Amino acid sequence: MTPRRRRRAGYAFVAPVAAFLAAVVVFPLGHAFWTSLHRVRGLNATFVGLDNYRRIFGDDAFWHSLAVSAAFTGSAVALHLLLGLGLALVVNELRVGRTALRIVFLTPWMVAPAVGATIWLWLLEPQFGVVNYLLRAAGLISAPVAWLGEPGTAFAAIVAVDVWRGVPFVMLLMIAGLQTIPAEQYEAASMDGAGAAARFRFVTWPNLRYLVVVASTLDLINTIRHYDIIGVMTGGGPAGATEVLPALIYNTAFRGNRLGEAAAIGVALLAIVLALAIVYVRIARPERGEAAR
Amino acid sequence: MQTRPIATTVGALALAALCAGGGAQAQQPIVLQWQTANLTETQYEPVWKQTIAEFEAANPGIKVEPVLVARKDHWTKFVAASQAKKAPCIVSVDLTTAAYNGYLMPLDKFWSAEPADFRKAWSDAMLSAAKWKGQLYGLPIWGGTYAEIYNRDLVVKAGLDPARPPKTFDEYVVWGKKLTGADHWATAVVGGKTDTTTRVLLMWIWANGGEAFNADMTEATFAKDPKALEAIKFYLAFAGKTAIAAPAATTTNYLEQTNLYAQGKIATMRNAYWAIAKVVGDNPAMAGKSFVAPAPANVPNAPTLATVTASSISASCPNPEAAWKFIKFDAGRKWAVARAKVANWMPLRNDLADDPEIKADPMLLQYVKIGQNARSYPLPSPVWAEIAANDIVDAVQKALLAPDKTDEIFRDLDVRVTRKLRDI
Amino acid sequence: MIRPRRARTALLWSIALVAALIALFPFYWMLNTSLKPASEVFVSPPTFFSAHWSLDAYANLFATRSIGRYFVNSLIVAVGSTLLSVFLAALAAYGLTRFFPRGATPFVMFLLFTKMLPETLLIIPYFQLMSDVGLLNTHFALILAYSSFALPFSVWMLIGFFRSIPREIDEAAMMDGATVLQTFVRVVLPLARPGLVAVALFTFLIAWNSYVWALVLTTDASMFVLSVGIANMVGEYRVQWNELMAAAVIAALPVMVLYSLLERHLVTAITAGAVKG
Predict the structure, then answer these.
(1) Residues forming a β-bridge with B292
(2) What's the mean per-residue pLDDT of chain B?
(3) Residue C236 CB partners (closer than 8 Å, separation 6+)
(4) Residue A290: pLDDT over 60
(5) pLDDT in tens, C73-86
(6) Residue B97 neighbours by CB distance under 10 Å
(7) Closest C-alpha to A206, from A120, A144, A291, A145
(8) Is the ipTM of this complex over 0.85?
(9) B393 CA to chain A: closest CA distance, Å?
(10) What is the CATH number of domain A60-288?
(11) Chain C from 215 to 254: CB within 8 A of any B CB
């Protein structure tokens, strides 16, 4: 096939997606950018340039939300990876019942985030919730704990629920990764007298490293946008302890009715995520090696 | 086998068909969409279905299409549709905010065309709750008056007299201490992330003779007005030093509060009549066990708070005359009484005092009486939705978590809210 | 030599069981609540098993709400999104790996970039767009939206997959006289089946559970999907918790069944496609 025909064939394959994205994704994205440059009051939009950005960066609420988002995303992603990898290792080691376990561990991911959050909201209810009941019955606490009522425990609770929901996906990726590690490498390591920890360090980890980078990047981009769980469980409270940036965006857009500022926060969030993703991939890239990409 | 061109053609045809199907609209009958958060309330469903059925029977050529939406997403959906100028014709939303943003149509020309007979059922005070910048943007349909609801059994059990409920703040605390014990409390401080928190807070402020805002809503005076601050501290202390409120105040919203009351965990709650319906629904054993009294107050003639829900016409409605017809119909006596009966929503017409169904319900009468001295809610500011559900709630939550910082917290609130009030 | 291994397996099993308990407990509670009578829902202490378990809530649900209709709508939208997503992702991934190999990574990066804005900001312009082309209240509008969500992951995974299918196979087919399209459809795609299944499962899940787009884009109750139907059950003045949980159980079942049946393909696909890529 001539290079020209190749290119034309290539365009034909990629064109449908490109057209689709242009209509369904690029247009709304562009509109959001455009809105961020306007002061929107209902149906009136006045162009104000970067004024919205100046406002949001000058407001405590933005920096506070950024800090909460950073803490939330950081802890959630770290736990997703740790527990995801841990569970994957456990499942991999157990021969019997492996498929059943995989499906069981996958279930939290299958229910809609809002539904899962509603159930947890209820389980954590101070007076009527099961968690307090069980803890009291086990003698671990003497009075009902208001999990979502105190800033510290509320934050921990939303991270915990996000972890509950988010681990399955990472675990799946890790399971897949573990299955590609050639058995010979493990055998070689055992023959050299390596114990479980050493085997992990010298065989498992180097093989999984790239996948961990990919998984964490995807997870980071997803988790930083998570709002459903927080919206259902705390609404961003108490006293703003769980008000991550998406919550701030939602509140600014639909409670504050300041669509321009909300768009500006969104664009700021996008820039941060983009920067993070680029930096992160850059850092992780050199170790990848020269595999044909 | 050239599958691609065939697939492409089929795809294009399907797309065209779907577009055509999606775009087709009923040409002849006028279709009015009606969106209010209450359409998803189970007890109201039979009433609105009947309202629509009877209206359509009386007005062939007009169809009313209800838009069901979860309460918490009602405004979001309305805004998204309004931005595209495709909002439902008949809506019940935060009137001032919606009017300010240009989402609603002024109704003065419809209103003044109505006969005096129709118009006299609404007092001036009631109408002013539905006005913005002098123009009428909605017809008040129903509301909720707030008062203090007591569980008679628990009150008697604590050795208190149900016929003599507390009248002042201090008397309330006396009752409170007697009604609190191990694992049950007198009341709940509503500090969750909804505007109910603000409603209850305002009531306590007003009951102490304080004001949270200046007369023209350009300044917040939560901390500036000493009586307001005093009331705030007194009320929030229920969850702190005074210890007569259930724990977890920062996550107590309407649902949690009514749950606690329904299960006998709290003996009183500051709420509207509809809360009784909810409580009895949750726990049928609670039927008939409650009595209602005006909220305790330190000044004579302290007003209570009355929410006002009005029906409005969205700015983009292509058939406002038909929409007005439905709004008028829905505001009629029959439906006001029906709503009061099944959902305990207070009628806002002033000509129902003689209605036998209303008279037959002593608690409803009691609420009507209390509601005669009420201030309407929401307060008339376009930024009210945000202030009430975000800023004031945040301040309350912060003060609950750090009571010694209450002064500072509410001073900051004053500054923040004043800035927002002036930034319109 | 055997004892440490036994102890180790026992340890692993205990970890696995604790994790399984945490994963499943909320579902158990969901089921438990859906079977209880309404008056028992808020009893303190809460009941784990009830003598009064019954299917009343489910019966009521079907009688008073169009759960069946919502279910069908969800199915149509989810299946439609899955088909569209698989179609687009397969085309793009194949085109990129075979014709623009160096463009693959930047393209995936671009796709990821498009996902970085929160949904809140996209629903208003999207509503406007759908309204302008007359697609409000249609399954198609939702299908279009949902197909775009899973694209980054799907394209990425299929790129890896197609890369692992040697080019020689393409070339052999084309030497036998097949056109590029025929090669794609009849030779390469079948080899990529696990990858396609994975993409399908992934997209189905996202489409099935999504809420805010359906909230904004549908006004006609006959077009509601399950997630909207469930959200509408949370009234402020009354919430039928057992019915709400029953609806949630019904909503969760299809996904669970689907994943149980096809989970193996998911793992195979990610193994082959994502990891080696």
Answers:
(1) B149
(2) 91
(3) B37, B41, B71, B254, B255
(4) no
(5) 999 999 999 999 99
(6) 25
(7) A291
(8) yes
(9) 8
(10) 1.10.3720.10
(11) 215-216, 219-221, 224, 228, 231-240
